Amino acid sequence: MNANASKAKPGQATRSAQHPLAPGQASTVLWYQQPAEQWIEALPVGNGRLGAMVFGRPGEERIQFNEETRWSGGPYDPMVEGGAKHVDEIRRLIFDGDYRKAHKLFGRHLMGKPIEQQKYQSFGDLILNFGEGAVENYHRQLDLDTAIATTRFTRDGITHTREVFVSPIDQAIIVRLTAGQPGAVSFTAQLRGIRNTSHSNYGNDVFSMDGLGDDRLILRGKSADYLGIEGKLRYEAQLTVQTDGGVSQVVDDQLGVTGADSATLYLAAATNFVNYKTLGADPHQRVEEVLGKLETRPYDTVLNEHLNEHRRLFRRVSVDLGEGPASSLPTDERLSRPEDPALAALVLQYGRYLLITSSRPGTQPANLQGIWNEEMNPKWDAKYTININTQMNYWPAEAGNLAECAEPLFRMVGELAENGTKLAKLNYGCNGWVAHQNTDIWRAAAPMDGPNWGAFTVGGAWIGTHLWEHQLFAPDTTKLASHYPLLKGSAEFFLDYLVTDPKSGKLVTNPSTSPENSPGRPDNTPFYDDLASWMSPGTTLCAGATIDQQIVADVFDQFVEASAVMGVDEELRKQAAEARAMLAPMKIGSDGDLQEWQEDWPQSEESHRHISHLYGLYPGCQITPRETAGLAKAAAVVLDQRGLTGNGWSSAWKAACWARLANAEKAMANFDFAMLNYTCPNLFSQCIKAPQVDGSHGFSAAIIEMLLQSQGGEIQFLPCLPATRWPVGNIHGLRARGGFEVDLKWSAGKLQHATIRSKNGLPCRIRTSIALEARTAAGQVVASSKDAVLEFPTETGADYLIAPI
Fold first, then answer.
1. What residues contact 576, with CB distance under 8 A and at least 6 apart?
2. Cβ–Cβ < 8 Å for 491, 468
3. What is the pTM of this model?
4. What is the pLDDT of residue 12?
5. Cα 307 from Cα 281, distance rounded (Å)
6. Exposed (0-12), middle (13-18) or buried (19+): which is 570, by Cβ within 10 Å?
7. How far, in Å, CA of 609 to CA of 432, rounded?
8. What is the rounded CA–CA span in Å between residue 241 and residue 175?
C-alpha cells in the first residue's frame, strides 16, 4: 500500500505556499501539508519507554500513546512436560519422509500451552479540542534531529504552534502549545482508554478515567485476561498542565484551559511491571514521581536536556546523498518519486531515529511496531518475531553507531536463556538454552502458533549472534565476559541437538523448518491440523533447513572465537569446532539456486516473503562473491526467483543481500518498489497492509551496507554505490567491524577520500579496487595499497586519511 494520497477535509487546511525546509533538512525532516486522517499518517515520537503518535489535527487533536510494558495477561509459563521423550520418534518420521505424522506428533507434545502468546496493546489517547474553524498555512513535520513533531497553522489571523516530544530525561510526553497573540491558547483535554470491541472473547481491560484535583486527569486500569492467562498488569497515566496566563480547571474527566499565552501539558504513564517474572511496582507512585519533578523544572530546561540527549545519539551519523527535484516535496508525495537521492538519506536516518526512540538502555526491545501501536489486537500481537523481524530492528545498531540501543535486545537474550534452559531439557533433553519463533514481554520460549511456525529452534540462537557482532564492532573483553555464558549456552544446546543425517552422514538439526515456507514437494498437500483447528497448507517440518545450518555454523564459530579470547572451555571449544566441520554444507540446486532445504525441493510459492536461506549472505557473512563465488551466484538466482514482491521487511532484506553482492541496480529496485508499495505516509514499513518498523530499520541498514561493508576482517568503501543515483555525497560516523569509525566523501561516483578513526588500536585492512594511500592526521604516509589491499597498524584514538593515490 502506498497511502500517500491523503487529503485534508474541505476547509480544514490549505496547502503551504512554499517548501518550508532549510537546506539539508530534506534528509532529516518529514513534512506534510495536511493533518493525519489515519494512524499510518501520524508522526511517531518516543523515548524508548513511552511512545506517541501525533495526528496534527487543528480542531480535535489526537495523540495516541503507548507505554512499553502495557501488555495483556501477566507472567506465565507455557512450557509442558514430557516433550523430550517424543523427539526421537519425530526425528525418525522426518528422516523417513513421514512429515505429516511428525508434524502432528510435534504439535501434540512439544507445543507451548497456550499455543499463542500475549499482546502488546495501546495505552490510550490524549484528545485536545480547540474548536472548529478554517485554517490557513498548515504545516506538519517530524524533525529527526530534534525528535519533535510540530503542527503549525493560522486561524482567524493568529498563528498556532504545537510541539510534541517524549523526553528521555524526564520520562514524559510533553505537548507545548503557543500562539502568535497573547491569551489565544484555549482548549479542553481528555484521556481516553480503549475498549477491545473487535474481539470480545479476548477480554477487556478494566479502567477508569477521572479528574484528580484542580489540574490533573487520571486514567488507570488492569490488563485483560487472554488465552486463560489472568490479566495482572496494572497501569496508570496522568495529565497535568502548566500555563503562562489564563485559567485552567479540571471538571469531571476534562481539563480546560482558557485565555493562556502558552500551555505545556505533561503526560506520564507507568505500569506495575518490574521484570518478566514480577509485577510488584506501584504505577501511581511512578507517575507521581515523574510529574512531581516536572513541577519544579522550567520548560526551556526540559526541552534543552531532551535535545541534548537525543542529539547525543542521532548526530553521530550525518549523511548527504544530494538532492533532486522531488526533495522539496512533502514526504507523502516524495514516496512516489523514489529516485530522489535525499529520500534514501531520509530513510537511512529514519531507521536510526526509530531505533533511538523505541529502544534505549533499560527499556524493552523494539517489537514489531517499535513502541507505537493503536490496536488492542494488533497484527501478530505486535510481539517479538524472532525468525527475522526482531533481528532486523537491530541491523542498524552497530554500523549505524547506535550500539547502546541494542542493550535491550541483549538483555532479552539473557532473559530468554533463563526460560530457554528449562525448555531445552523439557522439549529436547538437551543442555544449553533454546528459543523458537516468537516471544513476548513475559519471555515465552516455547514453540507457538503450531509446528509450521513454532518448530524453529534457532530463533534464540539468531538473536544471540548479535552479541558477537557487538564484540566485532567494539572489541571489549569485559562486555564479552558478560555475554559469553549466552554464547556458550547456545553452542551447548546445538552440540546436543544435532543428529546425523542417515543419507549424507552430516550433522543436521531435526526437527527443523525454514521459516513459514512449505516446500513444494508432491506429498506436501493441505491437511486438517487438529491442534490448531485450521486447514494447514502443508507442513514446513524437515531436517537441516539451510538457515538452521548457517546459524548453527555461526553459533559454533562465534563460541570458538569467544572462548579463545576468554581463554576458557578448551575441551568444549574443540567439540564445537569438530561439530562445525561435520555440519551439512550449503547446496546448489538443479536450477542453479541456493537450496532452502537439504533436498532440492521446489518452492510452493512463486515469491515467498522469507529468504531465510540467504541468512548466510546477509546478515551472516558465510557467502561472499570473492571467497564463495559459486554460492554467491546461487544466492543471486534465489533473489531473482523471489523478485520484488513480498512486503516492506522482505524488500529491505533483499536490498541488503544485493548490496553484499555489489549489485546497486537491483538493490535500488527493491528500495524503489518498497517506497511505492510497502511504505506508509509516515515511512513505517508495511507487512500485509499492517504497519511495522522492521522494514524501516532494514532499509536503514541496507543503505549503510551499500556505502560501507566490513565483513571478513576487511573494510570496503562504497561497495555498492548506485553512481547514477547518488553521484555525489558524503557520510560521517558509520562504524566498521574491528573498532573503527568511518567518514566517506565521493564525487562523480568515485571515492574522494575517507577518514578512519581507530577506537581500539587494531590493524586496519581495506579491500580496494583503486590504489589507496593512508596518512596520519599529521600527513605522514602509513601505507599504500598492494594486491588490492591497504593494510596498516593503528593507534587507539588516532585518525587516518585514506585517499586515492
1. 491, 495, 556, 559, 560
2. no
3. 0.96
4. 39
5. 30
6. exposed
7. 31
8. 9
